[in-house]
Every structure is written in structure tokens, then in C-alpha cells.
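User: I'm curious whether this sequence folds into something compact or stays loose and floppy. Could you predict its structure so I can see for myself?
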Amino acid sequence: MYINSLIYGIEYADMEIDLEYRNQLMKKSETEEGLKNLYDEACKIDEEAMKNISHNDKKRICRILEIYNSTGKTKTELERLSRQKGVKYDFVKFAITMDREKLYEKINRRVDIMIEMGLVEEVKRIVEKYKFYPTAMQALGYKEVVEYFNKKLTYEEMIEKIKQETRKYAKRQLTWFRKNNDYIWLDAQNGIQNNIEIILKEINCEQEK
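Assistant: Here's the prediction. I'll summarize afterward.
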């Protein structure tokens, strides 16, 4: 969403947050049947946008429904309208990748550091402060800690699930970027300086066109 907004001229209008409607969606999404019904409803409303959304992606499914509920237009319609304003920038797109095993090692270590730095305590403070869970509580790491608080996971299972879900998320990100053929791929193992030289070379080539 951030990338599309920046380089494709897509603007996401401010919406009034209907907390009652959001809470209804969140409650329905807690069960397998409820989430399936929300997914089916979102597909009927915005079939195009749902092509890129997994059937178990609660956050993005609910986002499609919230947009329509708030604006009366689908996410696809809003993006199409905003694209008509044109792109503000000249740009070259780079994406970075690395060996899958090394990537997963870095992800696992990052989760360990998050736990060491007090993730569980942070989520506990949020749970105690709010009567309802804000959207951020659906983020990776937060929702698994909540499951641990609710005794759906042991402490060890919580950590492993955060790692597993983060690895899945990284895989989805790579898949999303690879669908776009105009990205120039950089290998993280080439080193920062080598990749900087590639970036500068490509930018200079674009400027000379």
C-alpha cells in the first residue's frame, strides 16, 4: 500500500473509523466459519482486490469491508480514481533478496531479540489499557502473545508461531514483489557497497534516457 501510494499515484482518502462495525468484523473473524463468511462477502464486494488476499488474512479482509462500509466505494474503485491524477515522481524500483535459509535465520533471531526486549510486557500493557483490541493488535507478534495470554499457546509455542508466521509473511512479500517485472533485484550477500554501485549505475542510466 505504501509503495503503490508513493509511485503509482494512488491516494487513500481519510475514513471515519466505525469502531462498532470494526469490532463486529473482528468478532466474526475469530471463528473459522465467521472468517470464511467475511472472505466470501469481501469477494462479492471487491473481487479484483481479493485476488491478492489470502482467505485467512483477517486484517486485509476486514479492511476491504471497512472501506466499502465507510465510503460506499470499493478499494479497487478508489485506487482507479486516484490513479487518474498521475504519478508525481520519476523513479527506479529496487528490491532486495537473500538466500532463503539465511533470511529465515535472521527472522528467527529478530523474534528472539523482540522477546528479549520486552514484547510480552508491551502487549500486556496494551491489553490492560484498552477495552477493545486496536488494529495494531492483529500485527505479527502481538496476536500470538494475546493467544499466549488466553492460554491457547504455551510460551514456547508462542515464540515458534511468531517465527513461523513471520517467515510466511516474508515469503508473501517476496511473491508480491516478484509479480512486478520492473523491479531490479539486489542480492544482500553482494555487500552494501556493491549494491550501492548497482543502484547508482541504474539511476544514471535512467537519467540519460
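Summary: The chain has two domains: 2-83, 94-208. Strands lie at 94-97, 184-187.
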